[in-house]
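#random but structural
TW: two for the price of one
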Amino acid sequence: MIFVSEKHDIFLLLKQDQLQLFSKKHEPLQLIFPQEAVKHQEIIDKKLFEKTIKDFSTPLKQLKVIIFLDNELVFQKNISANTGGTLIDEENKFVNEIPFPQENVVRKTVKTPSKIWLLSANREFYQIITLILEQQGWNVLSVVPLLLFTPITQNHALSFDLFLQITKEKILLEKGNLLHEDSQSKQHVAQEAVGKSSVIQYVALGVSVLILAGVLVFAVSFLGTKSTKKHANSSNSKVHITSKHPLPTVSK
């Protein structure tokens, strides 16, 4: 492996099964993820995945980096910039089509003069990588879907110089940075969390009521049985004295 110790910008391209590193002085590096650790963006073995990223990043400390998400990692839909009042409906419809748990999904709406991009990705997949890199002393500047820069990348092989050209699109980089989620996206996640919490609370309340009702029924039944037995025992305790022989009569 090539060791890079000096501070300079590099670019990472995250794909479903690998991570590619582009630097100015070296050929691209490639890290293939173990199939036992991750498959189709789903983290199967978190510890193994974390170890894989750590082993890769440890020799490359204290670097500034932008992470680009390959097109296959991003769910996207673009609509006309003149959509107007139906944008919220389009966003909600788009979000409901994402196959990942909603708490793991990041959402982003990027508006350009000609179109509006509705973007979504599996937050957990790139977030683990981001956290580990920062622990290793890296400075992760942003995580951005590569498809936003299709006019620049189409018909060109990916390279350090091409990524460097992309960084000139500062406004689009900022709008598409998934590290800064839309307030609406955060609110949606928070509402889902509250909704799940409410359901759990209602279920717990229902279970408590059932348990209490069961205890009351048992107590009433137990006390009733005890009272019946006590009454029966009380009746049996009365002694009836009978004499087989009449008492002798005393004659005067």
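TW: number two ↓
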Amino acid sequence: MLDTRSEPVDPMQSVLFGEGAVFAVEVALDPEACFVGRSLAGHLQVHIGGVALGDFYEPLCVLGPVADHLTEVGATSSALWHPSLQGLSPEGVFKLLDDALFTGASDMHPPEFDRMVFLTNQSEAFDALKGFVVRDQEHALRFMVWDYSSSSFATWVVPLAALSTAASAFSAWIRQQEQSLRGGD
């Protein structure tokens, strides 16, 4: 869900990694922090351009895979483009990627397309969203998100450094929390 509130969304003690007006990850642990498998679970959402994406109230969202996903987007950003996207509007890019990867309208697609999926199937918090990310500018990423709950489409251009900084800090925090809660193992 797209949410344009500018104040904290929950009375829980949340932590914001990055700048909400540019790119950030907001996360909160329940008072009785728990693990799902080997990953810490909690509440999370992503902020892009001052808009909160995801359902922060969804319980027990596994945090590690989202941190890994965001880190991978930053690390593989040079592969987030394909010549077939050249000249398309953001809506056209979204449709081409959606048709190739999800709707079945296209049988074959370049392997680069698989890396361009953003947040989709990463956590229950993002179940109402379908997103893609491409690097259509030298030092920036374009995020394109469809929100099923409001039938709305949004797109943002974010400096690559903003994503990388937020993802790195979020990932490091999760690892530290997991180690602390496991008793330092």
